[in-house]
Amino acid sequence: MEIARGLQGIVVTETELSRVDGAAGRLVLRGQRVEDIAARASVAEVCGLMWQGTTAGAPEIEARLGAARLAAHRLLPTLGDALAGGDSMQRLRAAVGHMAVEGPDAVTLPAITGAVAVFAAAQSRIRRGLPTLEPDPSAPHAADLLRLLTGAREPAAADALRRYLVTVVDHGMNASTFTARVVASTGSDPVSAVVAALGALKGPLHGGAPGPVLDMLDAIGVADPARARRWLEAELAAGRRIMGMGHRVYRVRDPRAAVLEAGVERLAAAGLSRERLALAATVEAQAAALLAERYPQRTLAANVEFMTAVMLDAIGVDRRDFTPLFACGRVVGWLGHVLEQNREARLIRPRAHYVGPEPAAR
């Protein structure tokens, strides 16, 4: 019996939400290139695209997101110690799990999206000993999330976060998205699907790479090609991976990395990240050259985590909050997949091949 370990290569459903072309380095979000969406779309517009197939209702969604953030903020005193224990993803998962799923207060998709943003920001501020901030329901979602998290209102930083959130909104049948669809396929509620997806995203093989990229940049320290190469060679000699390089799907540079790099360049033009951008560019170039020498048969280029680390650091996000910020963008895609799975109305139930002992013969 042939077993597809990790379901590698298995097509489990049809989707209209995203197409990942690893060979060509293309990502299409419901008929639009990620580069085009990132350049102009608001979070509300992407919500409309993922949930309804159109951006026409974005103003109403924006208003509902604002109201949802305010409602989630008012829930904070009822969460007990959910936001005070464990790492950042444990706190976020616990807080989302408190949301009502039945009755007149049952949540909507904007309510979940707004709550994930508020809870992600609140857990960060509590962990850092800072007071939580009240949302501004009239502000664009990304700009208000930045203020709730860092207290800043810098327009260039808010636009960078908008670009990040819409860039990571969906990416094929990844682990957390599949988890959300499995839960939805049982007929469960969208809050449970999102909580399960957060549990999958918590794993370091899925959502935990941007922080270590920043650790690498810190260790190298300056934009010196020779120094960067020596450090990278030492890591490879020790049998360690170069964080932020290579992708399981893409055989060329991750298109999302290029999208975020353009955002970082805009930050640099605003005076927010010149030194970090120069360092990141040096490390990426040296890592790509070194990996090409060692593995000429493979293309190991920068992926989304590499530029995520540079961008989020530049706008003042603590590296411990990188994965919760990823969830703030990806939750929109998870909920789109929940809607698709609900329409499919079929339980996801793969088989396993038993290889354990047989009972003793009588």
Descriptive account of the structure:
The chain has 362 residues and is an all-alpha fold. It folds into two domains: 17-203 and 321-344, Citrate Synthase, domain 1, CATH 1.10.580.10; 210-314, Cytochrome P450-Terp, domain 2 (Cytochrome p450-Terp, domain 2). Helices cover 56% and strands 3% of the residues. The chain has 15 helices and three strands. A three-stranded antiparallel β-sheet has the order 1-2-3. The longest helix has 23 residues, at 322-344. It is globular, with a radius of gyration of 21 Å. The two termini are 28 Å apart.
Secondary-structure-derived class: mainly alpha
Could you give the count of β-strands? Answer: 3
> Which strands sit side by side, in order, in the main sheet?
1-2-3
The parts where pLDDT drops under 50 for at least 5 residues are none
Query: The biggest beta sheet, please?
Result: 3 strands, antiparallel
CATH class wording of the largest domain: Mainly Alpha
The helix-strand sequence is EEEHHHHHHHHHHHHHHH
| Count of discrete alpha- or pi-helical segments spanning 4 or more residues | 15
SSE blueprint:
Elements lengths: L17 E4 L4 E4 L2 E2 H7 L2 H10 L5 H18 L12 H9 L12 H19 L13 H10 L4 H13 L7 H11 L4 H12 L8 H11 L4 H13 L17 H15 L4 H21 L9 H11 L7 H23 L18
Antiparallel strand pairs: 1-2, 2-3
Summarize the structure.
The chain is 56% helix and 3% strand.
Salient structural properties:
single chain, globular, 15 helices, Citrate Synthase, domain 1, Cytochrome p450-Terp, domain 2, mainly alpha, 362 residues, 3-stranded antiparallel sheet
